[in-house]
Amino acid sequence: MLLINGKSYLRLELLGRGGSSKVYKVQNNNSKVFAVKKVTFSDMDETIIKGFKGEIDLLQRLNTEDRVVKLYDHEMKPTSVFLVMECGEIDLAHVLNARLGHPLDLSFVRYYATEMLHCLAAVHRHGIVHSDLKPANFLMVKGMLKIIDFGIANVVPEYTVNVHRDTHIGTPNYMAPEALLDANQFDPSAPEGVKCMKVGKPSDVWSCGCIIYQMIYGKPPYASYNGPQRMLAIMNPDVVISYPETGLGGIEVPPNAINLMKGCLQRDPSKRLLVEQVMNSSFLSPRSVEKYFLKELIENAVRYGVDRQTMVEDLEIDFLTDDVWNKMSSKMRI
């Protein structure tokens, strides 16, 4: 039994653990089910404790967002903190692991990538950078994907803003190069001995690109490297990410999916796609036209060729292509 702010919760099962935290599935006196995150502060320094307290502040700030897991209650105790939150059914990490034995399903990728990006857009609207996006931090709650775990998130609207960290950084598999690079450099303006990490919205987009890459190929871009070599590979501009033409099960990967991943995984944060650009990309938001439009297009092309009776120059083809593309865009499903 757990007692939080005078309310009793029956522990049903341990949902997960990580470092100094445990998450339990619990039930209150009205038989409602919640998730309780317990973080123990023993053997922690003040910086990490501050991070967990910051998670409470951010969850309260984001409590009106449907795409963020709800915080219902919390209690700070001398050596621990308890958070009473929504209880989900399954996280994205388990979903992706279950797909490993199956061939690439583009509809699956589009659905979960779009759900994930809706979560990220909700957080970025509040000027918050999550800093530790990974499949395990996306939770399915009653059919809707939600974002969880704001332990090292910060209110930093631009990637050029410094965020002081020391030992508590994100998950290397999904961390952007600029985050790892700056985590290994000292900032003279930071407190003595504290490393500085520059993170921002583009860093979260990189993490989402890594997750989409995993959906398509079965593993993140740098998963073939182990331990410290992985971090070095991410930081090294000479290590180029490969984009095979086939994904899980030997299924062909569409060029627009590869272009999308490349746009998310640009090393230069200023050249990386924005969340809105990713969501509106041709892979996640395919163009669709009706049959009558195709009929009209073919009819006009045939008539144009008959009327001209001469070879069309390349420049004119480019002009006609732009005209057709603009017409298709006007009928595009966003």
From TrEMBL:
GO terms for molecular function: ATP binding; protein serine/threonine kinase activity; protein serine/threonine/tyrosine kinase activity. The keyword Ubl conjugation does not apply. Residues 9-284 form the Protein kinase domain. GO terms for cellular component: kinetochore; nucleus. CDD domains: PKc_Mps1 (cd14131). SMART domains: S_TKc. It holds the Pfam family Pkinase. Keywords: ATP-binding, Kinase, Nucleotide-binding, Serine/threonine-protein kinase, Transferase. Signal peptide: none annotated. ATP binds at K38. One of its GO terms (biological process) is meiotic spindle assembly checkpoint signaling. Belongs to the protein kinase superfamily. This is Kinase-like protein. The lineage of its organism: Eukaryota, Fungi, Dikarya, Ascomycota, Saccharomycotina.
